Amino acid sequence: MSRSVLVTGGNRGIGLAVARELAAAGDAVAVTYRSGEPPEGLFGVRCDVTSTEDVNAAFEKVEAEQGPARVVVANAGITKDTLLAIMNEESFTSVIDTNLTGAFRVAKRAVKPMMRARGGRIILVSSVVAMLGSAGQTNYAASKAGLIGFARSLAREIGSRNITVNVVAPGFVDTDMTAVLGEDQQAAIRSIIPLGRIAQPEEVARTVRFLASDDAAYITGAVIPVDGGLGMGH
Ligand code: NDP
């Protein structure tokens, strides 16, 4: 059965791969984008997740186009890497505002229609560094670790309404976010990943598809690593 799905940051990278994967599985998929054109074949809504008005308006457009979102993937995220000693406060708060408070705005708007429908799936895109830590990423790791406590608390709040809340924690994935790393840095990263390679966005997307599927109906509050073994032992 086709469900209404919304993926934030679905115009490129992991979000786009997730959107394409769910659309291929038969869902009606909407994506948010901030500028330019939405990807072909997907319903695009302009939305900056740092704006509550934008988020609420995006959900309304999705509801009008394809019905209330039954699957919501909070994927939009940014990095502003630097060592804490030289990190300014804006670099900290803007990463938290996008990655963590952005997911709060999206999940908050998503839950009421899901509660009324007595069903839904919320999937948050965190990162291996949430639990592993990463020098130069105190802001980013804090935002991604925050998503885990957020998801687990929300999972407890709305589990009785048949809504699951899960976290996907990717390792290094081949997107614009990691393209900024030099070849030396990429080689160093590959050397510490047990599977010896960086992931393709589709490999994360397939895990999201599983969490959104009937087969994952009894999974909630989980953190699923898709990291080639990098975070093993979490
Ligand atoms: P990209 O940089 O390729 O894409 C980021 C996406 O987020 C874009 O669609 C971007 O939209 C959107 N976005 C950023 N800020 C906002 C905002 N304020 N409002 C709305 N949308 C926004 O990143 P990835 O695809 O690599 O990352 C996707 C998610 O996966 C992120 O949460 C990231 O932290 C996480 N992740 C990525 C890993 C990696 O190695 N790549 C590893 C672990 C986690 P726009 O095009 O408008 O900028």
From TrEMBL:
Pfam families: adh_short_C2 (PF13561). Residues 3-176 form the Ketoreductase domain. The keyword Lipid biosynthesis does not apply. InterPro entries: KR_dom, NAD(P)-bd_dom_sf, Sc_DH/Rdtase_CS, SDR_fam. Its EC number is 1.1.1.100. Belongs to the short-chain dehydrogenases/reductases (SDR) family. This is 3-oxoacyl-[acyl-carrier-protein] reductase FabG1.
